[in-house]
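Dear support,

I submitted the protein below through the web form. The confirmation email said the job was done, but the results page showed an empty box. After a refresh the structure appeared. I'm attaching both so you can tell me whether what I see now is the final result or a partial one.
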Amino acid sequence: MSYRNDADGGRELPAPNLPQDVARTLVDEYPTDLTWWRGDFYCWTGTHWVTKDESEIRGWVRLATERATYLKPKGGKDGAGEMESVRWAPNIAKVREVVSALGEGVLQRPGDDDRVLALDNGVLDLASRELAPHTPEVFNLTHRPFSYDADAACPTWEAFLADVLEDAPKDVAFLQEWFGYVLSGRTDIHAIASLAGKSRSGKGTILRVLTAATGTENVAAGRLDNLAGQFGLENLIGKSLLAFGDIRWNNSNAQAAIQRILEISGADKVNIPRKNKADWDGTLGVRIMFAGNEVPRFNDPSRAMANRLRIVYFGKTVAGREDYGLTDRLLSELPGIFNWALLGLERLDKQGVFTKSERGEALKERVSEGGDAVESFAAEYLEEREGAWCLEDDVVAAYDQWCKRTRRLRDSTTAENLRSALLDLFPSVENTHKTRRSGRTEQGQVRKMRTFAGLALETPEGASWEFED
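What the results page shows now:
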């Protein structure tokens, strides 16, 4: 990026102690349309807005001011009198003040982003199917990386789905509606798509096609570990899809990630901590999709997560007869796949809900039952009884044994979550402390341990603690 000074080698700007005036003088000279929204600069690409690194804005301001001058009272005194021209002389502090004034004072844009359906050749009106020209007046953060063609078809795509989902027309119908939902930018139906089943059964191909149709830069790769971290939502700002490829539910961070997933899929307003930046507040425009060999498994007694899931099961593998050129052929049909998705969106609009398949609903019911793991464990191992008590450590050990025996997911329920769930199940039980003596002699170590007062536990094998009240 270059900045041209006047022919005489410089130009006059407002004084550095008037950064807002300097910013207003310079703003129209930036090479592209520029705005500032929720702590970031954005520039116009011709089809949509993208974030601009603040270091580039600082560099531009430095170049724009390095040979400039400003008027200053002679002798450094304030007030009226003779003025002299001095160098603007940019430094870190002066540039930082101008950049801050440029964003927060001159370019700041209020409200949410505009979630229109922008494609390479214009902005599509879904009702009329007419294209409008791109304009920076619309603050859209995404666009679909292909042109709209009302006559485009996708025979290879339709044949592929018929092959991998044979005898499952309702699953195909759901995928058609889901593609339309994601590509349209809608977030009003709080659903989560899950593709589960055998290896090499078409799940990854479907996810790759949707990623390409959505625009790779508009898709965030999901990991349960990352999502549960402090800055786990930062990369979702401005994204359209959060895609979990080859997801593994046996993950120690699954429970924390599930809470985040519920917030995102529910279109809740979220506060997002960001590294070296101010927090971001707003509603994300992200839809969530899982793909993996396993049907989702997690502990969610409220069933909120299971209720939002729409599961498509792939029981037919193509292992041994892979078509390695298939993805490229499918991507050549993106304009036709888009038209196919719009038909699914029309059906979704009429129905108001996604198409359900019997197999998908049965799998969802299994997920729902699995979500009551703590409740099922309690019914088998625990009894509410006046005067009884049990060690929290022993309850955790019993829960471990029960999970292994019943092949339930254990790692997503921490001791703290287990304690909270049990106290919800047994409101009269108190979580308190007793003094514990380990070993069989008076010389054994003594320390306080958490107990559940009012709860009896079927004694795990090998438990040999002595207690002092």
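Response: this is the final, complete result; the empty box was a page-load delay. DSSP finds 15 helices and 19 strands in the chain.
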